[in-house]
TrEMBL record:
The keyword Kinase applies. The gene is LOC100366379. Residues 103-365 form the Protein kinase domain. It is a single-pass membrane protein. InterPro entries: Kinase-like_dom_sf, POMK, Prot_kinase_dom. Its main location: membrane. It comes from the Eukaryota. The lineage of its organism: Eukaryota, Metazoa, Hemichordata, Enteropneusta, Harrimaniidae. PROSITE patterns: PROTEIN_KINASE_DOM (PS50011). This is Protein O-mannose kinase-like. It is found in: Endomembrane system.
Amino acid sequence: MKLIWRYAVATATVLISYTIWKLSMYLRVLTLDENHIKYDKQLIGLNFSTVLADWSNLDCREKEILLGKQMCRPECKPGYFSLDGFRECHPWLMCEEIREEVKQTGELVGSGAVKQVYLAEWKGYQIAYCNLTTASYKDDFHHGLEMIKSFQHSEFVVQLVGYCHSDDVMLLEYHPLKSFDNMNSILSQETFSHFNTVLLRFQLCIRYVEILNFLHTGPLGTYVMCDSNDLFKTLSQYLVTDDMSLVVADLDALPNVDHKSGITAKCGHRELIGRFVAPEQLWPYDDTDFNDDNMPGYDEKTDIWKIPDVVDFILGDIPGSDAVRFHLFKIHRKCKEVVAKLRPSTLDIIKEYKLTYSYFRNTRS
Ligand SMILES: *[C@@H]1O[C@H](CO)[C@@H](O)[C@H](O)[C@H]1NC(C)=O
Ligand SMILES: *[C@@H]1O[C@H](CO)[C@@H](O)[C@H](O)[C@H]1NC(C)=O
C-alpha cells in the first residue's frame, strides 16, 4: 500500500513539474517580443556603449557589428527618409537633387536582370543608387519601385531614399553587409566570429519567415516572392542590416494572389525546373511540351516549400546547428507536403520557430 502511494506521489510530481515547465515555455514564447528575438545582445555577451541623445521619437539600434555603438535616427512619415545620425527626416530625393547632389563612386555592389546597384554618396552618407539595366525591363523596374514605395511603413522593407522616374533611378538605404546569400562568408570572418552562433543564425531565419509573413498577410494583400527559383536567387532578395537583421530589398517580381476571387500567380512565363521550386510550379503534363497558357497558377504556399532549404543553408555547419535542425524536422516536413494546401502558414512556422528558439536559449543560459 505504502509503495503504491509513493508511486502515485512520484508520478504526480513528475506530471505537475512537466506541466509547469511546458506552461512556462509557452508563456515565454508568448512574451517573446520582437526585440527579444531580433538582437539578443545579452546572449552574444557584448558591451554596448549607449550614446542616446535626448531627441524624442527616435529609433535606436545596436550596431556593434560595424560601428561598435548604438545609433539613432528619427522615425519618418511616408515621403521622408532618415539615416543614422539624422536629427530630422528629409523628403525623398527627387530628380534634380539626385542629378546634382548624388556623387557616383562607380562601385557596383549588386546587379540583377532588372537593375544594377551602385554605391553612391549624398552629403557624406553612403546610399545605394539603382538604375535600369535595359529598356525592356522598364515596367518591372517601375513596378518594383511602386511596391517599395507602398511598403515604406514597414520595418521589413528596405528604406527608399529617393527616385527619379524620367531617369529610371531609385535610391535606397545602403547596407554594407550586402545580401543574405553572403551570410556564411560574413560570419566566417574573424571580425564577426563572436556573432557566428547558432542562435544568431536562427534569429535570422525567424526574421526571414517574418518577412514572408508580412508579404503573405500584409495590409495590402497576399504577395508571392517570385524571384526565388533557386537558393541563391531567393537569398539575394534580402539585405543584412548592420544590427544583424534582414530587410527585403527587391520587390520587382511580387505578384498578388487573392484566394476569395480565385486569383493565382505564376512566376514568369518560362518553364521552371529543379527541386528547389515547389512541385506545383513544375509543368504538370508528361505527354505535352510546356506551354505557358496551359500552365496552372499557384499561390504563396510556394514560398513555404522553399523555407526548409533556406533555413538549412543559414543554420550552416556550426556546433548546435544539427540540434536545431532536429527540432525543426517535423514542421519542415510539413513545409514539403506535395499538396500545397497541407503546408503550414508562415504564422504556424513562426510559432514553432519561436518555441524552438526559446528552448535553445533556455538550455544555453
Ligand atoms: C563597457 O564599456 C565601457 C566603455 O568602453 C567600459 O567603461 C565598461 O567598463 C565596460 N563594461 C564591461 C562590463 O565590460
Ligand atoms: C547606371 O549608373 C551607372 C553609374 O552612374 C552608370 O555608369 C551607368 O551607365 C548607368 N546605366 C544606365 C543604363 O544608365
